[in-house]
Structure formats: structure tokens, C-alpha cells
Design a protein that fits this description.
Layout: H1 8-16, H2 22-40, E1 43-46, H3 50-62, H4 65-69, E2 81-85, H5 112-119, E3 123-128, H6 162-169, E4 175-180, H7 186-192, E5 195-198, E6 218-223, H8 226-236, E7 269-273, H9 283-298, E8 302-306, H10 311-329, H11 347-358, H12 361-374, H13 380-403, E9 406-410, H14 426-431, H15 437-442, E10 446-456, E11 459-468, H16 474-488
Parallel strand pairs: 2-3, 2-4, 7-8, 7-9
Antiparallel strand pairs: 1-3, 4-6, 5-6, 5-10, 9-11, 10-11
Helix pairs in contact: 2-3, 6-7, 8-16, 10-12, 10-13
Bound molecules: glutamine.
């Protein structure tokens, strides 16, 4: 096994026991990136100087710094090589958000999550590809070309955090950060066969995340195990003076994902919403999900039929609320303040031509939709109505969590699809989000866990199981996910 294939937990133990150095760990990742990235296009920028950071970390290890870090018996992020979605700012590095309008933009400060990871001693390998401004489900909306699915290079990795999910799945890093506004961590994690967590809205600071839809955006981990995801989540979560929506949560309960065993599931009540098994769900995906539910039941979990009656309205409400916020957030890309500029003969033409030339078609579509739904004559019939639906969706979850510990279902309605298959049909693309957007509207945490694979024309493609928890229950959710992981992976 190469070092780049290790989990964070294994790598941290190996570093602690001095089986290998941070330099060797980082070199194995950089070698893998050099070999594979030209095929996969998971990274937009590769930090060759990660090797220097690794050397510094090794010097610190030599001076016994690490033994302090490990004193509580938990794995640490010290010396762990990570990939970062390219809509999260790292000071002095380019940050494109997958858009031509930010092609030459250099971040002036660190996002709060980056500052926290630096404090933990993590090492960054580079910035990963995404749909432009995180709008999409396939990374095909990136201005720099799509990422390929590591399981089948003719298929999409999902999106918008497709670069991060592909990098984790192809061992081009140990774990990664993504962002999730309506499914962008969970759906690519499902398509690539890795674990992705969308935290509770407010659990992680959004300071330094390039905004898409501010009432829905959250940063979260993408990793190879629930335990690794827990490690990363606990490192980045918490209150932040730079983001008034970020709050302290769940601090005492430091990640016992590993201690979760088979028996742990005996006490768990699992809600299965009847609205999840619909005609849009691919029968092959349904089989894998149902078999996972059966295994959970055999392990002692109690399956309870529930209803989320407003689930059918979540997607239309999301596609009004998200574009409305997008149209406001993206007004700052005007060709004047930063990024791409077309210097025209008038101020108006400078605005218009800069935006026309440097924003992609999906971004323009959302800006137009959002401008329309916020406009004076239509605000009440669209935006306000969608906000009311949002409240009802949230109430559905609140009622459900009075009865159950978790809600389980598919992450996505189908398997990773072929590159190009849906690119000319935005509505087909939006339907990919059918299981994920309600969670962002409600603000609850949810993760996608690999549930098995399906054979499709000679290749095995991963299926994701979505596990949803109540507000600020990430550590319990991850613990349950850790136990489910054990029964699903033989
Ligand atoms: N696919 C959804 C969209 O395009 C969600 C994207 C995201 O979570 N960033 O809006």
C-alpha cells in the first residue's frame, strides 16, 4: 500500500510511530497527482511547495512537537495532506471558483477553515475543480473543463465538489474540503464512493468561502471513512467572529466514530420517508439502498416509516431561493472591483461586457432567474412563497426527528452519468438534487456514505446512502455512520 492510500487515522498513527515521515507521505501524494491529474483533472492548481511544508513539519516532529498533539489518544491532522475546493480562500494562492471571471484572482486572506487547519498542522496539496461558483452537479460547468470520475473516465464525478471527491477517491490526497449549497458535497461523494458530510447550517464558518447562496452554503469534509470525516469536521467547526451565523456546537463530544460498533445500531431508530421511493429513483440504486436498510435492521436498528409531506416542493423552492441569493451575491463581479475586466467605452458597457464574456451559461441563467424572482412584481408570488415552503420543509424534519434518530435514503436518484449526457438540459441536471436540497433548506446535517456498487456496462459504480440527522448532531450522525460503514463494507 502506498502512503497516499492511507486514511487520516492510519497516516497519523504512522507518523506518530515514526514509520514514515511527513515528507514521504506528501511525496507519495504529489507523485500520484503527477501521474493521474492529467487524466482526471481533479486539481486546478497543484502546490509543488507542499514538499517544503512537509519538510518543516518533519523538523517539528523531530523536536517532539507531535507527542503533545497526540496526548489525548486521538489521531491528529498534523502533517496530513489535504485538497481544498477552489472556492475556499488560501492566502497568496489563486482562487478561481471555477470561473473565468476569477481566473487570475489571488486570495488576500485565509478562510477561517483554512486558518484552523493550518493551526492543526495540515498540509495543502492544491485547489480542486468545481462547477462555476459551485452551480452544478457534474463539474461540467467549470470554465476550465470537467473532472473525470475515477471509476470510469467517461463519466462525471458529480458536483459541484467533483474535484475534491475525485481526488479523495483516486488517492490524490488523504481527504478534502468541499462546499454544499444543495448537495455539492454529498452527491459527488456518492458518485465517487467516498464519505461526504454537509454540516448543520452555522456549524462551520463560511468566512472565506466564495458565496453562492449564503443562507444555504456550508463547508464540509470529504474523506475515505466516517471517522476521518469526523476528524476534519471537528477541526473546522465552531464560532467565528467573521461569520455571525457560525456558532459553537457539540464541543465536548470529540469524535468517537471508531468506538461505534455493531451493537451501537441496536438503539437507533431509522426513519424511512415514503416520499423517497419515487419513479425518478433508478431501480438499481433503490436495490442497493434497500439492501443497506435491511442490513441495518439485521444489526438491530428499528426501521420506522415516516413522511416528509413537503419533500416534493423542496426542489422548486430551492431553485427560486438559491438563484435569488446568487443574483445578489454575484453582483460584485462587475469588472471593476476585481477579476476579469473588459475595458469598454462606458461604465455600463464595462459592466455588461465583463460579465457577458467571463461568466458561463449556467451562472447567467441563475442570475437572470434570481433577478426575476426578486423583482418588484414577482417577489411575492415567487421568492416569498418559496420562503414559506422552506418553513414547511423545515417543519417536516422537526416533526420527523421527534420520532427518529436518523433519516436514511438515497443521496442521488441515479448513478454517475456520462460526460455530456445532460449538459444541454438544465432541468435534468436540477433533478439530480432531488434528495439533497431539502436538507439545505432545513439546515440539518447530512452525509453520504458508500452503500455498495452497481455494475453498469462492465464497470462497478458506487451508490451513496444519505443519512440525515437533527440540527447540530454531527458527532452522533458520524458515529452512527461509522457503525453502518462496518456492516456495509465486508
Ligand atoms: N446542484 C445544486 C445546484 O446546482 C447544488 C450546488 C451546490 O451544492 N453548491 O444548485
Amino acid at each position: 500500500m502506498r502512503l497516499n492510500e492511507l486514511t487520516i487515522k492510519q497516516a497519523s498513527a504512522g507518523l506518530h510511530q515514526k514509520e514514515f515521515s511527513v515528507t514521504e507521505l506528501v511525496e507519495d501524494c504529489l507523485d500520484a497527482i503527477k501521474r493521474e491529474n492529467k487524466n482526471l483533472h481533479a486539481y486546478l492548481d497543484i502546490f509543488e511547495d507542499a514538499a517544503d511544508a512537509a519538510q518543516k513539519a518533519d523538523e517539528m516532529l523531530g523536536s517532539k512537537y507531535q507527542s503533545v498533539e497526540m496526548s489525548n489518544g486521538l489521531p491528529s491532522l498534523f502533517g496530513i495532506p489535504l485538497a481544498i475546493k477552489d472556492n475556499i480562500l488560501i492566502e497568496g494562492r489563486r482562487c478561481t471558483a471555477g470561473s473565468k471571471i476569477l481566473e487570475n484572482y489571488t486570495a488576500a486572506y485565509d478562510a477561517t477553515v483554512i486558518r484552523k487547519l493550518k493551526n492543526h498542522g495540515a498540509i495543502f496539496l492544491g485547489k480542486t475543480n468545481l462547477d462555476e461558483f459551485a452551480m452544478g452537479v457534474s463539474t461540467e460547468n467549470s470554465a476550465f473543463g470537467p473532472t473525470k470520475n475515477p471509476h470510469d473516465h467517461t463519466r462525471v464525478p458529480g458536483g459541484s465538489s467533483g474535484g475534491s471527491a475525485a481526488a479523495v477517491a483516486a488517492n490524490l490526497c488523504l481527504a478534502a474540503l468541499g462546499s454544499d449549497t444543495g448537495g455539492s458535497i454529498r452527491q459527488p461523494s456518492a458518485f465517487c464512493g467516498v464519505v461526504g458530510l454537509k454540516p448543520t447550517y452555522g456549524a462551520v464558518s463560511r468566512h472565506g468561502l466564495i458565496a453562492m447562496a449564503s443562507s444555504l452554503d456550508q463547508i464540509g469534509p470529504i474523506a475515505r471513512s466516517a471517522e476521518d470525516a469526523a476528524l476534519l469536521f471537528n477541526a473546522i467547526k465552531g464560532k467565528d467572529a467573521f461569520d455571525a451565523t457560525a456558532v459553537a456546537s457539540d464541543n465536548s463530544n470529540q469524535l468517537p466514530a471508531a468506538s461505534a460498533n455493531y451493537n451501537f445500531l441496536k438503539k437507533i431508530k431509522v426513519g424511512v420517508p415514503k416520499e423517497y421511493f419515487i419513479k425518478e429513483l433508478d431501480i438499481k440504486v433503490e436495490k442497493v439502498v434497500r439492501s443497506a436498510l435491511e442490513k441495518m435492521e439485521q444489526a438491530g436498528a428499528e426501521l420506522i416509516d415516516i413522511s416528509l409531506p413537503n419533500m416534493p416542493y423542496a426542489l422548486p423552492a430551492y431553485y427560486i431561493i438559491a438563484p435569488s441569493e446568487i443574483s445578489a451575491n454575484l453582483a460584485r463581479y462587475d469588472g471593476i472591483r476585481y477579476g476579469y475586466r473588459h475595458q469598454a467605452d462606458s461604465l455600463y458597457n464595462t459592466y455588461a461586457l465583463s460579465r457577458q464574456e467571463a461568466l458561463g451559461p449556467e451562472v447567467k441563467r441563475r442570475i437572470m432567474l434570481g433577478t426575476y424572482t426578486l423583482s418588484a412584481g414577482y417577489y411575492e408570488s415567487y421568492y416569498l412563497k418559496a420562503q414559506k415552503v422552506r418553513h414547511l420543509v423545515r417543519e417536516d424534519f422537526r416533526r420527523a426527528f421527534d420520532k427518529v434518530d436518523i433519516i436514511v435514503g438515497p443521496t442521488a436518484p441515479g448513478l454517475a452519468f456520462k460526460i455530456g449526457a445532460k449538459i444541454n438540459d438544465p432541468v435534468q441536471m436540477y433533478l439530480e438534487d432531488i434528495y439533497t436540497v431539502a436538507i439545505n433548506l432545513a439546515g440539518v446535517p447530512a452525509l453520504s456514505l458508500p452503500a455498495g456498487t452497481v455494475e453498469e456496462k462492465g464497470v462497478r459504480l458506487p451508490v451513496g446512502l444519505q443519512i440525515i440527522g437533527t440540527w447540530f448532531s454531527e458527532n452522533k450522525l458520524l458515529k452512527i455512520a461509522g457503525a453502518i460503514e462496518k456492516i456495509l463494507t465486508p
